[in-house]
TrEMBL record:
<keyword id="KW-0378">Hydrolase</keyword>
<dbReference type="GO" id="GO:0008706">
    <property type="term" value="F:6-phospho-beta-glucosidase activity"/>
</dbReference>
<dbReference type="InterPro" id="IPR018120">
    <property type="entry name" value="Glyco_hydro_1_AS"/>
</dbReference>
<feature type="active site" description="Nucleophile">
    <location>
        <position position="378"/>
    </location>
</feature>
<dbReference type="InterPro" id="IPR033132">
    <property type="entry name" value="GH_1_N_CS"/>
</dbReference>
<dbReference type="InterPro" id="IPR017853">
    <property type="entry name" value="GH"/>
</dbReference>
<comment type="similarity">
    <text>Belongs to the glycosyl hydrolase 1 family.</text>
</comment>
<dbReference type="Pfam" id="PF00232">
    <property type="entry name" value="Glyco_hydro_1"/>
</dbReference>
<dbReference type="InterPro" id="IPR001360">
    <property type="entry name" value="Glyco_hydro_1"/>
</dbReference>
<keyword id="KW-0326">Glycosidase</keyword>
<protein>
    <submittedName>
        <fullName>6-phospho-beta-glucosidase</fullName>
        <ecNumber>3.2.1.86</ecNumber>
    </submittedName>
</protein>
Length: 479
């Protein structure tokens, strides 16, 4: 049968994406233990906690923690999955809260109540014909093992993680085919506590600790890939990158090489997970910065023999790099870290640049580099939605953003990119990871809750709900 190169594949996985720590709530229910995100408050201290600059191992009385209730998906998942099914979702990206399965992280046997919750959630998805796409660790490392062992800088975490993986692979092997080992693994360099439970003592070499912790996660990811292939024949195991091409601000060669170096800082992780070895540029960086990674005896072989099956990535915007100190003064916000403002692009209310063509560029760069299937597992527009007098929510700005990015995806497919799925971020309004806000909304479904935690949690369909339903129904033809 002749392949149609100008259309989305017939088996394309249209859906949406969520994370347990941003939607579930129920942070002490069902035997669940504390995780890193449970300690990230809303407000001015959030970023400092995520970076490991404020050392906390339990919630503080004078802070508000939006993840503790979130949008109460823990109790309302059936209602929400039914809404996703109404849109026609082919898949749903979710994460498992590690501390629901192992509350402290180092137990020998898993928490049955936690396992049953995800059994029920997956059963509900499958009942509606929705394929689960599961992130194993999405910024929610158990506090119990962080307190005892110091986070991912301790190699013992590999064993704790693999024990967790073995439990969920064994339990859900007949329900889940697609897995990703770590969410946005490169965020360990920017948000080390939230990303990997890493805290710093005065005088420690933070860069050394970040890269040693990253090495442990990379070994854990490779061994989890091996374990999944053994326990679940035919499973697809992916990595996950916070992506977005760096453009040189000008044709000055200094800007060009800087943009390449910025790209490589992020791609390093995926190079190792997809190619199975540390690239030469990474070895040079480590050498020139006095960083000595401690390798286990079999680490090189482990990485080489257990590469991922697909590349999952988030894309919200492109980035820009400049070597000019004056240009560097003009920075704008982005996914966790700031970037030089590109004068050719518009920005969202939160300062994130809007660049649909950048998605096509990023898809081509990643596919050219790895020659493995790509899965866009996050993409979307955070905006402050308004409920009209008649109860409607006319989020045409979101529709426009997603429409242009889907067009770019189609162009990438025509370019020859093997793209297997698309799960827009926060398909129902959830707590923002970067700011802890609720008013920064991404969803097709509005949730009645404000930044202070007030609201009924009522679900309400936005205009984009009906638009995306037609996109899926037409397999991306009717935009």
């Amino acid at each position: 049968m002749k392949k149609e190169f100008d259309k989305f594949p017939k088996n394309f996985l249209w859906g949406g994406a969520l994370a347990a720590n941003q939607c579930e709530g129920g942070y002490k229910e069902g035997g669940k233990g504390l995780t890193t995100v449970d300690l990230c408050p809303a407000g001015v201290n959030r970023r400092k906690v995520m970076e490991g600059k404020i050392d906390v191992l339990k919630p503080l009385e004078d802070e508000y923690y939006p993840s503790h209730e979130a949008i109460d998906f823990y109790h309302r998942y059936k209602e929400d999955i039914a809404l996703f099914a109404e849109m026609g979702f082919k898949c749903l990206r979710v994460s498992i809260a590690w501390s629901r399965i192992f509350p402290n992280g180092d137990e020998e046997t898993p928490n049955e109540e936690g396992l049953k919750f995800y059994d029920s959630m997956f059963d509900e998805m499958i009942k509606h014909g929705i394929e689960p796409i599961v992130t194993i660790c999405h910024f929610d490392t158990p506090i119990g093992i962080i307190e005892k062992f110091g986070g991912w800088k301790n190699r013992k975490f590999i064993d704790f993680y693999l024990n967790y993986c073995k439990a969920i692979f064994t339990r859900y092997k007949n329900k889940v085919k697609y897995w990703m080992t770590f969410n946005e693994i490169n965020m360990i360099l920017h948000l080390p506590f939230m990303g990997a439970g890493v805290r710093f003592e005065d005088g420690e070499n933070e860069l050394q600790i970040k890269y040693q912790s990253a090495h442990h996660e990379l070994i854990a990811s490779a061994l989890a890939t091996k374990l999944a292939h053994e326990i679940i024949p035919g499973s697809m195991i992916g990595c996950m990158l916070a992506a977005g091409e760096f453009y040189p601000y000008s044709c000055n060669p200094e800007d060009v090489i800087l943009a390449k170096e910025k790209d490589r800082e992020n791609l390093f992780f995926i190079d190792v997970q997809s190619r199975g070895e540390y690239p030469g540029y990474a070895k040079r960086f480590l050498r020139e910065n006095g960083i000595e990674i401690v390798f286990g005896e079999d680490d090189e072989e482990i990485l080489k023999n257990n590469t991922v099956d697909f590349i999952g990535f988030s894309y919200y915007s492109s980035r820009c790099a400049s070597s000019d100190p004056e240009i560097l003064k003009g920075q704008t916000a982005g996914n966790v870290f700031k970037t030089v403002r590109n004068p050719n692009l518009k920005v969202s209310e939160w300062g994130w640049q809007i660049d649909p063509l950048g998605l096509r560029i990023t898809c081509n760069s990643l596919y050219d580099r790895y020659q493995k299937p790509l899965f866009i597992v996050e993409n979307g527009l955070g905006a402050n939605d308004i409920i009209e007098a008649d109860g409607s929510i006319n989020d045409d700005y979101r529709i426009e953003y997603l429409r242009e990015h889907i067009k770019a995806m189609k162009e990438a497919i025509i370019d020859g990119v093997d793209l297997i799925g698309y799960t827009p971020w926060g398909c129902i309004d959830i707590v923002s990871a970067s700011t802890g806000e609720m008013k920064k909304r991404y969803g097709f479904i509005y949730v009645d809750k404000d930044n202070e935690g007030n609201g009924t949690l009522e679900r309400r369909k936005k205009k984009s709900f009906y638009w995306y339903k037609e996109v899926i129904n037409s397999n991306g033809e009717n935009l």
